[in-house]
Amino acid sequence: MPQKQRKQGNERVQLLWGGRFKKPLAEEALRFSSSFSVDKRLWKQDILGSIAHAVMLGETGIISASEAKALVKGLLALMRDIEAGKVELEGPDEDIHSFVERKLREYVGEVAGKLHTARSRNDQVVTDFRLWCRDAVKQLAEAILKVQQALVEQAEQHIDTLLPGMTHLQHAQPVRLAHHLLAHFWALQRDLERLKDLLPRLNTSPLGAAALAGSGLPIDPELTARLLGFEKTAQNSMDAVSDRDFACELVFICALTMVHLSRLAEEIVLWSTPEFGFVTLDDAWCTGSSIMPQKRNPDIAELVRGKAALVIGALTQLLTLLKGLPLTYNRDLQEDKGIVFNAVDTTLACLSAMSQLVATATFNADRMRQALVRDFSTATDLADYLVRKGVPFREAHRIVGQLVLHLSELGKGLEDATLDDLRLFSDKFNGDALAVLQPEQSVERRKELAGTAKSSVVKQLRRARAEMKRTVIWLQRFPTISPDLKQICP
């Protein structure tokens, strides 16, 4: 029996199923179940996957060489017409797969019906989805790299800029601004490493699993995998069509990247306030007030901070979507793509905004140094001085704490202390103790474990540059469709 058809407007919808049904699908049911508005983003992946599948069908003799050639030619023409805007991604179709097959029929006629041989929408959609996510991994890595470059370039300009490092948002110890900015670099580096680690699990071809049990025809899954640039084929046909771990991992990486961006954004919001005055954002990355003429609001950073909630929510959505599904394919999985698309889109937009916001920001070195005045942030250095004199650290901690209390009651800071002030609390203090109280000496003493000494920060910058270079090389070697398929699809 022929597949069910139904009319919408002036177009005839060709469903990919329906032979065993007596009634056509209800109009509302078709609208409710259609995913085309979302999954049409997969059009290029769907066509590339179909070209590889058609090549394989011809190579194995499942269809004739002339039929395979006609299918490939039609698919290429369709791809080019979509790219040129001659064919719009519109129509009453159930999904992108229905759209491609319907349009292909307009190019090559009835032979289009042979394209779906030995293939189900189940393995087709997850193939498209993996190809899209593979592209997303590369885009995310490139976008993270741009933020890292902005951080490193700012750090290189501020190796000698000192500011209070904080815990609990309270002044703790002096640090270099370069050291602080590089802390954000290394957080993003871990996000990059997670993307690299995901790639081998993501880059697996499910094509050939068909609906769930594989195909009874003599297909060649290794051929389609190689043509599409996949490293390997799935080990189990049921797992192949039901697995969405790769999508969960990708959204998790997006969520954690957004958490890292949100922390950076929060500091920029705080530092741009008059109370801090540590950074001035470029006019191009600020907004104003509709009523208060003087305002320069860090809205872009605030939006990044807010959008982190959306991506974290996407991870919860996706995990909840998957948690109760029996093997193998269930229609619930139709909803996964919109979640992933939104998470990746949001993360890419935020990475792009933050790279430019950081690159154009002006850090106020004088204001940062002034914030160290009378903030007692060299107290630990004074305790360490006593330790070097043989005083147990716990006792040294108590002595310096009493000294801080004494000076604060007098309205003085540690840098205002005299030797007499120090010796009120311990006779271990000598004249050289006063030099310990200077922030410039404090940062220089911290050379170990990538501390904030200048020599250590310079080494960090070299390592950061080396990591970025390695990322560039990795991106240059990123998997893509094979040379064989590139010859077909230049």
* Overall SS class: mainly alpha
- Major β-sheet profile: 2 strands, antiparallel
Span from first to last CA? 39 Å
Unreliable stretches (pLDDT < 50, length at least 5) are 1-11
Helix content, binned percent: 55-70%
Strand content: 5-15%
Number of helices: 20
The overall pLDDT average reads 94
3D shape: elongated
**Order of strands across the main sheet:** 1-2
The tally of strands reads 8
Written as H for each helix and E for each strand, in order along the chain, the element string is EEHHHHHHEEHEHEHHEHHEHHHHHHHH
Task: Give me the Rg, rounded.
Answer: 31 Å
Architecture overview:
The protein is mainly alpha-helical and 490 residues long. The chain is 59% helix and 6% strand. It contains 20 helices and 8 strands. It has a two-stranded antiparallel ribbon. Strands 3-4 form a two-stranded antiparallel sheet. Helix 8 links the parallel strand 5 and strand 6. Helix 3 packs antiparallel against helix 4. The longest helix is centred in the first third of the chain and has 37 residues. The radius of gyration is 31 Å and the shape is elongated. The N terminus is likely disordered.
